[in-house]
Structures are given as structure tokens and as C-alpha cells.
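Hey all, sorry for the wall of text incoming. These are the three entities for the joint prediction.
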Amino acid sequence: MKNLVIEPTKYTPGINFLFDERVLEISGESYPENTAEFYSPVLKWITEFLKINESKTITVNIVIQYFNSSSSKIFMDLFDLLNDKSHEGLNIIVNWNYLEEDDNMLEYGEEFQEDVDNLKFNLVPRKSI
Amino acid sequence: MDDSLFRLKQSYDEKGIFFSLSGPISQDLIVEIGDILKHKMKLEEASNSTILKVFSLLIEQSQNIIHYSVEKIQTQEKLNKELHFGIITVGFDGGHYYVIAGNLIDNKDIHRLDEKLNKIADMDNDQLKAYYKSERKKESDQQSKGAGLGFIEIARKACQPLEYNFEKIDSDHSYFTLKTVI
Amino acid sequence: MTKSLYTFKENLAKKGVFLCFSGPISHDLMVEMGDVLKLKMQLQEENISTILKVFSLLIEQTQNIMFYSAETIPEPENANNKLHLGIITVSYFNNSYFVQGGNKVKTSDVSRLEEKLSKLQKMSKEEIKEYYRAQRRLTSPKTSKGAGLGFIEVARKSSKPIEYHFKKIDDQFSFFSLKSTI
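and here's what came out:
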């Protein structure tokens, strides 16, 4: 599969999905005008990616400073996809990065963590994002 | 919660104001307002000439606020980051578009501004054109960032003499309002 | 109007309103408002957590206006899409920030909206979070641009229960205002 690389804008995150390394990163801000439209290729890529069954560990790094409520729904869908796959034995790690002083982002991370019953969901405080 | 937001909207509607921005004025913000303004005026079938005039008055008057408003915030370390505060409104009333801009100024500047504006108040288009050319040739004033010419430009685009007002706030500051009608 | 601009500015200042926009809102315009808000708060050395909270409420409430305001003009590129009109203000008063948004709605939608909002207003922080998570699982990403979580998100981020107001204009339209606190 080819890598998926989308440059960030002021209100859409940078997407850096590296196939060989099995490292997927979403970073920046997320409040697009049409969330479904922006994330459609992203979710498509991930769905295809997850069909490939093998034992390499998948790492997902979320490094988001702000996301709006419709993005929240997309993230939930994404984590659900990953969580379902992890039940098949695949080792998937999600790193939810957040700014140390941002209690909001920590809270959202904790909630996603609670909502995924099998995924390794780590909360990673950062001094800067 | 009370109906103050509704009353604000009502007062805008009554005056024919369809854009109003009060607060920190940034170039990028004005550019976006400008885009929407051009589009809205096209929908209202304003002539291209009118659209360009109103648009450029929006830009000119906003940039006056950005350059000259005394109400601002800046930090010591990053002096290149500054925010200037003012009010810019665009409306339509009695068959004409109009742009009103307001910002804080130092009282010591009132006389200079008043003089400049007074001078051009009674000029017709030809006189304004000639005055503009002569002012442009003069030694550039370091302080002005172009405002000397700015008012003349503004006057040239307006279809009526400029309306302006200095409202004294205290011993240091006044509020300067400028209205242009197209 | 030139004389009353200062009075208008003073009225806003009395309520601590430092950003006030009224007019058709495009996505790009909203983005620039967000930028200017962040910069203003950064220059005033507000802590990052507060900045992000106020910013996110500005975006969320503005996007609500952009999705649901009943007062519209057709969009530039696509006449089938619309630019939505509304008012958005950000203020600082008595040590709290407030974000207020106002827009026209269909009078026929008022009772449905009121039901949603009064429900949220009565919930505790925990209940809002639970409701948010439940709703997030329900809405389909394909249908709505906004996922229907907007009001819940606002209620969730507001440090006090949200406040709202409906003012009937006529049988067709009413004016809806929403206020959040940080």
C-alpha cells in the first residue's frame, strides 16, 4: 500500500500514514467545514490497511491541539475500527498526545480510553504540541 | 439570558448594517470579510465599479485602524506581534452603500487629522486628483505609513463628502469615526 | 451614525465584549476570527488551557450558526450552498469569559430546540459527558456536516450551565441566542 500523506492546514490536521513502518500519525488541528468529506480518504485508507493481516505492531499517534465536535465522532469511529481489529490478535497501540496544561484534551483522551476495551490506549502529556 | 443579542441584531438591521466587526482588526480577517462583501454585492447586482469602490474603502479604512488605532496590545519580546482594536461596519441605506470605521486616537493628533480632512471635504473629484498627485510628490512622511494619501484616496472613492467625528473621551484620547458613502 | 459609533463601542466595553461580529459567516472568516482571538489572549498572557477553551467555544458556536441559521445568502462557488448570517461575541467580565452566538431560526423549530437545550441546561457535568458519549455513537458521519453534537459540546465545555433565549420575530422566524461561560 502507498503511504497517505496530507499536508496540514489551519483547520485540518496533517496526515502521515507510513505503510512499511506501520506508523499512523494525525497531527495539528481539526475543525473542517465538512468533516465527513475530509476524513473519508483517511478512513478508507485505514480500512484497507487493517485488512492486511500480519503480526507487525501498528502505532497510531494522535497529536491534536484542538478538534471540534464532528471530528470527535470521526475519532470515535477510527478507534472503534482499530479496537475491532485488535480483537483479532493484532497489536495496536494508540498514543493520545495532549498538552500538559490542557485538561480538556486529557479528559477526551480518558474517555476514548474507556470506550475501547482492547486497544492499548496511552495518554501522553507533552510540554508543547 | 436576555434578548440583548437580538436587540443588537435589530439595531444593525434598522440601520442597514450587514457587516460589523468590533474588536481586534487583522488584515486576514478583513480579507475574508472583503471576499464575502464582494460576493454579496454581486448578488445584489451592484455595478462592478461600486463593488470595487466599497471593497477598497473597506480595506483602506480597516488598514487605517490597523496602523493608527491607539487601542492596541503588543508584547515586549515580540514587538512584531501587535493587535489593533477598532470598529468597521458596512451597510446599505437609502440606495447607497456606506463604510464606517472607528478607532481610538491621541488627542494631540486631532488637530492634524481635522485639518487634513477639512481640507479635502469641499474638494471635487478633479481637485482631489490634483491634490493627490501633489501630495504624493512631497517628501514622504515617515510616521504616516501612507495615511496622508489614504484620506485623499478615500475621499476620491466616496460619492459624498466624508463625514467624520471626534468624540472626546478624556484628556488623552478621543474616538475618531469616519463615514464614507458610495 | 458617526456620532453614535463611540456610544456603541462604550456599550460593548461596559459588558466586557472585546470581539463582536455580525454578518454572513464563511468558514475562512471563522478561522481568522479564531486566530485573532487566540492572538489577543496570548498577547495578554492568558493561560493556554483557557485560550483553548474559549477558542473551541467560539468555533463550536460559530459552526452552529453556520449550519443552522435560517438567515442565508447563496454561497459563491455553489449556489446550492448557503452562507449563514449570525452574530458572535466574546467577552470578559467578572473574571469569566463568555461566548455568545445569535441567529435566526424558523419559529416552527423553536420548541424542538428548546427541548434539547433545557435538557442540557439541567444536566450535571457527568450527565452531559455521558449524554455526549451516547450521542456520539448514534449519529452517522455520512449525513450531517455537524454530527449533531454541537450543543452538547458547548454545554460540556461551558463551566456553568448554558443560557439561551428565543425571541419571536413573526410566525416564520425567531431569534435564538446561546451563551456559554468559561
